[in-house]
Design goal:
The complex is a heterodimer of chains A (455) and B (454). With 455 residues, chain A is α+β, with helices and mostly antiparallel strands. Helices cover 21% and strands 40% of the residues of chain A. In chain A, strands 8, 9, 10, 11, 12, 15, 16, 17, 18, 19, 20 and 21 form a twelve-stranded mixed sheet that branches. In chain A, strands 1, 2, 3, 4, 5, 6 and 7 form a seven-stranded antiparallel sheet that branches. In chain A, strands 13-14 form a two-stranded antiparallel ribbon. In chain A, a hairpin with a 4-residue loop joins strand 4 and strand 5. Chain B folds into two domains: 216 residues, PmbA/TldD superfamily (PmbA/TldD fold, 2-Layer Sandwich); 228 residues, no CATH class. In chain B, a hairpin with a 2-residue loop joins strand 10 and strand 11. In chain B, helix 1 packs parallel to helix 2. Classes of the chains: A alpha+beta (455), B alpha+beta (454). Chains A and B meet through strand 2, strand 3, helix 2, helix 3 and strand 4 of A and strand 2, strand 3, helix 2, helix 3 and strand 5 of B.
């Protein structure tokens, strides 16, 4: 282990780092390069169902994932313990596996130390004292807001508290740790009136700052949307502009872009964006980045699953495909640097994924987008299925409202959309200034011109 | 088991359940000739759930030491007590007959008897075989095995030991050039051992994946519209699980699923009988659930009439009925939820050939790719293969086909039920906040639904 190049990161996780260091040395003594990743976390979960509290959970979870390489042969083993004896047994398993696996076609690469960003607001010290009673109180607020409306039913919801120590060591001198934490919550509500049930609405919120929890706002937003979904009329086939709400954007655009921008999928011939770098793949209105370095952001942390620095990765700039998401192995293959997109839990080998996908908002409000729409649909949710590889999708549009002469007129149901995401990207004609948060995504409303929906 | 008994006996809560669960998981992924992922994971610990003051509390620990278990029990009780003042409707549990016994999955050739090298070589050979075809651009081979040891002790007297073994295989091929890509995957999983590969050989799966991916590349798109279709057992399984099964989980019914007011009414053709069963060989094999309740078969739809519901002890008490053994937790650090097991439609009398021959015009739909359904039973499924039928004969293959509809409206149109039965949901995993191994299937069915494409 090369300790000269240590970048410890903003760490107070010395015990975990010491164990990981011992594991790496243990593997090295057996002839293997090694990477050890460990996690210790405390979580409190308060679950809601049918307008009531259903369960309260508090538990501590810890574990270690050990990746080894011997003569370019890969091994990986993990266990849900940071007990030294169990950890070393797991290390032994990983090393043994490295003697059995086939030699990789490319040289197996572990990360090398690089300077880590200093990110403010990853852990609010008040979170340490945030206990089950506090979490139950927040859950109670969700229940209270929804119970104020007789038509509203809280189907499911959750308030979640997480405080996590994570650390990583490897044979190349990676030695980093971090203590993060945050609060997140969601609720799914639906409205009923006169024997009719409206389409459900999902709202999510998160923060790293205890004082900035906004469960009441989230609940009010969900309730307002669910009430608007009541009395939906059957819709005829429709042609016009559509405005996808952030939830629909996450399912249709977010997930597809995340898959296609994954450098491993590109290498494996499974991305429709392969060979399109530097080319226009979307409307100039669309800028997409992956960025988990924002201060005080629930999705932020200073290093990835391999110990590489997180950074802002420009995926699409003004419609031009700019950059794919890399971990160390894919970056080595393409003669570039990791973008810090190795993700996964201690029970998974590092894999490429988004950390915090952001579609850049514009300066134009949703109200303006609607006012500029002569004939359109405002869509809350997409319920259907898609093919990651081809981008083809098909499904129902839920929580849809007709826009007529620049105004939202009435909710509609029974309408479906099908097509291919990569054919839709160039048709994006506007983006809102408002955004909503989803797990690992921050997304605006997206307007798409001249779409045809079927019933 | 002794230490679990001690903790449960010493609990001050009116109801306590302690569940030790050790899972040894091996998986490996090969893509395009590269070993992309491999792991051996041990995930073990004890989950303790208590019912105190009519409120559930849960905690877990990655240890079986008595001191750690006692501390976990105290946390679980504290959680219930903390939440209790907010709880509106206090929980009571339906009385059950305690289960004491040892249960083992039906395994002929234990997975542990086969080395990791053998499993790697097996997958490497599959990958080579897929990639040996010039038109195949990429591959995806995924092998997974779950070996579970469970001990469940409840304060109502159940003491259960379960040994489970579930292998799964996934064979995928990608054909095409540039952005015109088509993928096809064939997957299979069950409860059992290495004998799965002699009972369900991989060679036909390879051939299927490679041939169909290439054929799909040159296939045309469907016109769309309401059509007569024949569904294969895989799609019947997905329809049964995703579009019907979730709407008859008692917690979903209580939340206001469409089925709430449909019990005792006709929701399907008289030829349709749908069942959820734990004690049968399939990916959803469960002999006793995680509340220590013996699993029993539940007839969900009896000759077209909506009749059965899937329960845990809490919902059974609310509805004054018997629990069905559907309370399942994915791993020790999850609490039990109502989940399906093997969900299927019972076979009828038609042969596959007869159904095709007696279909004037329509589609033969095979294999479930992905799918989504709401609690109103509206569903959209992507189909792996769709063939036109004209005058009783199979015609051309179509690509990117979806099937859409309301499950109960579709089931009302069933006019032919095949006699050959199969559980065939492929990689049978269901997500409902946590995972569950499930399976589904049935015979071939002829019905009417909306066909869509892209």
């Amino acid at each position: 282990m090369n300790k000269k190049e240590l970048d410890r990161g903003p760490t107070d996780v010395e015990d975990l780092l010491t164990l990981l260091e011992d594991i790496v040395v243990f593997c090295e003594h057996r002839g293997a390069y090694a990477e050890a990743y460990g996690v210790k976390k405390r979580e409190i979960i308060v679950s809601l169902e049918r307008d009531d509290i259903t369960l309260c959970v508090e538990q501590s979870i810890s574990g270690i994932g050990i990746r080894t390489c011997m003569e370019n042969r890969l091994g990986f083993a993990c266990c849900n313990s940071i007990d030294t004896e169990r950890a070393l047994k797991t290390a032994e398993k990983a090393v043994k596996m490295s003697r059995k696996t086939p030699s990789a076609p490319d040289n197996i690469q572990f990360a090398f130390p690089r300077s880590l960003p200093s990110i403010k607001g990853l852990l609010d010290t008040e979170l340490t004292g945030f206990d089950a009673a506090d979490a139950v109180h927040q859950a109670r607020i969700l229940l209270q807001v929804t119970s104020d409306y007789p038509q509203i039913r809280l189907d499911t919801g959750e308030f979640f508290v997480s405080e996590k120590e994570r650390a990583i060591c490897n044979s190349n001198g990676i030695f980093a740790g971090e203590h993060t934490g945050g609060l997140s919550w969601y609720l799914i509500v639906l409205a009923r009136e006169g024997g009719e049930v409206g389409s459900f609405e999902y709202e999510y919120g998160c923060t790293t700052q205890v004082d900035e929890r906004a469960v009441e706002t989230t609940a009010h937003t969900a309730v307002t949307r669910a009430l608007h979904n009541l009395h939906a009329q059957k819709c005829q086939a429709f042609s016009g502009d559509i405005i996808l709400g952030p939830e629909a954007v996450s399912t249709l655009l977010g997930d597809t872009i995340a898959f296609a921008a994954n450098a491993t999928n590109v290498h494996m011939g499974q991305s429709s964006l392969s060979g399109h770098t530097g080319k226009a793949i979307a409307s100039p209105k669309l800028t997409v980045r992956d960025d988990s370095t924002l201060p005080y952001s629930y999705n932020s942390s200073s290093f990835d699953r391999e110990g590489c620095p997180h950074q802002a990765v420009p995926i699409i700039d003004d419609g031009i495909l700019n950059h794919f998401l890399h971990h160390t192995q894919s970056a080595f293959r393409e003669h570039t640097e990791s973008t810090g997109n190795a993700t996964g839990s201690f029970a998974e080998m590092p894999r490429i994924d988004i950390t915090h996908l952001i579609i850049e908002p514009s300066s134009k409000s949703l109200t303006q987008l609607i006012e500029e729409t002569e004939k359109g649909l405002l869509i809350s949710r997409f319920s259907g299925s898609g093919e990651d590889v081809s981008g083809a999708f098909s499904g129902g549009l839920k929580g849809s409202h007709v826009i007529s002469s620049g105004e939202v007129s009435h909710p509609v149901k029974g309408i479906a959309l099908r097509g291919n995401i990569f054919e839709i990207l160039p048709k994006i004609c506007d983006i809102s200034s408002e955004t909503a948060q989803y797990p690992h995504m921050t997304l605006p409303y997206v307007k798409i011109a001249s779409m045809s929906c079927v019933t | 088991m002794d230490v679990l008994n001690t903790v449960v006996e010493e609990s001050s809560a009116p109801y306590t359940e302690a569940r030790f669960h050790e899972r040894n998981k091996t998986h490996l992924i090969l893509r395009k000739g590269e070993l992309e992922d491999i792991k051996c994971e041990t995930h073990a610990g004890v989950g303790i759930r208590v019912l105190q003051d009519g409120t559930w509390g849960f905690s877990s620990v990655n240890s079986v030491e008595k001191k750690a278990l006692k501390s976990t029990l105290i946390t679980a009780i504290k959680m219930a007590e903390t939440a209790s003042p907010v709880k509106k409707h206090k929980v009571t549990l339906q009385e059950v007959t305690a289960v004491i016994g040892k249960f083992s999955a039906p395994v002929k050739d234990p997975l542990e008897n086969h080395s990791l090298e053998e499993k790697i070589d097996f997958c490497v050979d599959i990958d080579k075989s897929v990639l040996s075809h010039d038109a195949i651009k990429s591959s995806l081979i995924y092998y997974e095995e779950l070996l579970d040891s469970k001990y469940i002790v409840t304060s109502d007297g159940s003491q259960v030991s379960i040994q489970d073994s579930k292998p799964q295989i996934f064979v995928g091929a990608v054909a095409g050039t540039g952005s015109d890509l088509v993928s096809y995957v064939d997957a299979y999983g069950t409860t059992g051992g290495w004998e799965m590969f002699s009972e369900h050989p991989v060679e036909p799966m390879i051939e299927k994946a490679v041939t169909t991916a290439q054929n799909l590349l040159h296939a045309s798109y469907p016109k769309g519209g309401t059509s007569t279709v024949i569904l294969d057992p895989g799609l019947v399984g997905l329809l049964s699980h995703e579009a019907v099964g979730h709407t008859v989980e008692a917690d979903t019914v209580l939340s206001g699923a469409i089925t709430k007011d449909l019990y005792g009414t006709s929701v399907a053709s008289e030829s349709v009988t749908m069942v959820d069963a734990g004690v049968m060989k399939g990916g959803g094999w469960v002999p006793v659930d995680d509340e220590g309740v013996k699993c029993r078969d539940v007839t969900l739809i009896d000759q077209g009439i909506l009749s059965g519901m899937l329960h845990n002890r809490e919902t059974a008490c609310i509805m004054n009925t018997e629990p069905t053994g559907n309370a399942r937790a994915w791993e020790y650090d999850y609490h039990p939820l109502i989940r399906m097991r093997n969900t299927y439609i019972e076979p009828g009398e038609w042969s596959e050939e007869e159904i095709i021959e007696e279909t004037k015009n329509g589609y033969f739909l095979k294999g479930a790719r992905t799918g989504q359904a709401d609690v109103d039973a509206e569903f959209v499924f992507q189909v792996k293969e769709a063939y036109t039928i004209h005058q009783g004969e199979l015609g051309e293959l179509l690509r990117s086909v979806t099937m859409t509809g309301n499950a109960f409206e579709v089931l009302q149109t069933v006019d032919a039920v095949g006699k050959t039965f199969a559980l065939d949901m492929g990689f049978g995993v269901c997500m409902k906040g946590q995972l569950a191994s499930v399976d589904g299937g049935g015979p071939h069915l002829r019905c009417k639904l909306l066909i869509g494409g892209t």
